[in-house]
Amino acid sequence: MGLLARVTDYPAAVTIGDQIASHDDIFGAATSVAERVAGIERVAVLATPELRTVIAIVGALIAGVTVVPIPPDSGPAELDHLLDDSGARAWLGAAADGSDLPVIPVRMHARSWHSYAEPPVDHIAMILYTSGTTGKPKGVMLSRHAIAAGLDALFDAWQWTSRDVLVHGLPLFHVHGLILGILGPLRLGGRVVHTVKPTPENYAAARGSIYFGVPTVWTRIADAPEAATALRPARLLISGSAPLPAPLFERLTELTGHQPVERYGMSETLITVATRADGPRIPGAVGTPVVGVDTRLRDEAGAEVPHDGESVGSLQVRGAQLYDGYLNNPDATAASTTEDGWFITGDVATIDADGVHRIVGRQSTDLIKSGGYRIGAGEIETVLLGHPAVTEVAVVGLPDDDLGQRIVAYVVGQAPEKELIDHVAEQLSTHKRPREIRFVESLPRNAMGKVQKKLLG
C-alpha cells in the first residue's frame, strides 16, 4: 500500500467549509499538480483551511516532492526563516504576502490520470516546523514510512476505519490537523469534514463518528450543552496537543455520553502513546504506547526509573514513526538522541505497572526537585484545576535553602490558601503539596498562549 489510498467510494470524501470533493476530485486534481511540480526538491504550501491546500499537498506527495506547510499567520521574520531554512523552491498554490518565491498554481478543476510510481519509503514527505519556543523553529523531517507507520498505529488503537467520518477544525500545518486529520482519512479511503473554525455549532452540525479537538475546543463545547449533546451519536472524542483537565473530562462525559480519548506525541515522533478505543479512559492519562513504539523513563544520570505510576522520569521513545532529524541542524538532532538511539522528548512522565502514561510537564520547566523527591508540576496543576475556585494555575519550583526547591502554585481564583494545599495533599502524596499559593489576576503567556513559567518567581 502506498502512503495514500485511491478509492472512489465517497463523493464527499473531503469537506472543508462549503467546499466538497470526492476521492476522484482530489486525486485527479492532485495528479495534475504532480505533473507541474515533478522534479522540484521542495515546495512551500500556505496551509489555509481550503481544498486547494489539500490538493497541493497530495499532488506534491504523489510526485515525490517534499512539502513544507507554512502557517498562514507567520510574521515576516518567521516566514523568512521557514523559507530560507527549508530551501523551498516555490509556492504551490497561493503565496504568503511579502514572499518573492515563484508560484506554481493549483487548478482546482484540472484533472490528470497519469500513473506515478510510489516514491521510496525513506523519501522525506514533509518538513514540519516546531513552534520555536526555545529558539528559532526547527525543521522536522518526516519520511513517508514514518507517516504511514504513525497513521497505521492509530487506525489500530482507535479502531479507525474507512467507514468513519472524522470531524475537526484544526490548523493544517501541524501533525494533529494535517497528518492525522487529512492524510489519515485519505490513507484509509475514508471521509473528513473540516469545519474551518472549531466552534461548538460547527462540530454539532457535522454529524461525524470521530472528533478531534484540543482542550480549548472541548472547553467551548462543554460550555455549550446543546452542541455537546449533539455529539452523543459519535464513536470517539479525541483530545490532544495539551493536557485535558480532569473536570473537563468529567463534564464532557456527562454531556456527550463519551469519555474522551487522550493521546501524546510531538512533531518529531507523531503520536507515540494513546488511549485505545477498547481500553480504559483515565482522566489525566494519555494511554499506552501504540503499535511499533517503545517508551522508557530515565533519571538525570541515565538510570532506569520504575514503572510504578508515581516515580517521575524523562520520557524517551523509539519506533518506526520517528523523524529523520532536524533539517540543517545536526547538533540539535544529536542533542535529542541518546547514545543507544532513543529520542529524548524533553517531557517528564510517570508510567504505571499496566503501561499507562501520564505526562507531568516539560523537563526544563516542570520537573521540581524538592526534599529529595522528583515531582512533575503538571500533576499538581491538574489537581488544583479540579477545585471549583481555581480557573488557571501554574506550578513552579522556587529555590529553597532546606528543600532545594519548594513547590509554589500561582493561582487565578479565590480560595483559602490552606484549602487549596489540603486539596492537593488529599489526592496526591503529601510531598507534592504546594508550600505556598500565590494568587494572581492572570498568568504570563507567549503569543502561542503557553504559560511562561520563567517569568514567575
Topology (elements, then pairings):
Elements: E1 14-16, E2 19-21, H1 23-37, E3 42-46, H2 51-63, E4 66-70, H3 76-86, E5 91-92, E6 103-104, E7 124-129, E8 139-143, H4 144-157, E9 165-168, H5 175-188, E10 191-194, H6 200-206, E11 210-213, H7 215-222, H8 225-229, E12 236-239, H9 246-256, E13 261-266, E14 270-274, E15 288-289, E16 293-298, E17 313-319, H10 330-335, E18 343-351, E19 357-362, H11 363-366, E20 367-370, E21 373-376, H12 377-385, E22 390-400, E23 404-413, H13 417-427, E24 436-439
Parallel strand pairs: 1-10, 3-4, 5-6, 9-10, 9-11, 11-12, 12-13, 23-24
Antiparallel strand pairs: 1-2, 7-8, 13-14, 14-15, 16-17, 17-18, 18-19, 20-21, 22-23
Helix pairs in contact: 1-2, 4-5, 7-9
Brief account:
The chain is α/β, with parallel strands linked by helices. Among the domains are: 14-194, ANL, N-terminal domain (Rossmann fold), CATH 3.40.50.12780; 371-455, ANL, C-terminal domain (GMP Synthetase, Chain A, domain 3), CATH 3.30.300.30. The chain has 13 helices and 24 strands.
Known CATH architecture of the domain at 14-194: 3-Layer(aba) Sandwich
Straight-line distance between termini: 54 Å
Q: Hey, roughly how much beta strand do the residues contain?
A: 25-35%
The main pleated sheet reads as:
9 strands, mixed
Helix content: 25-40%
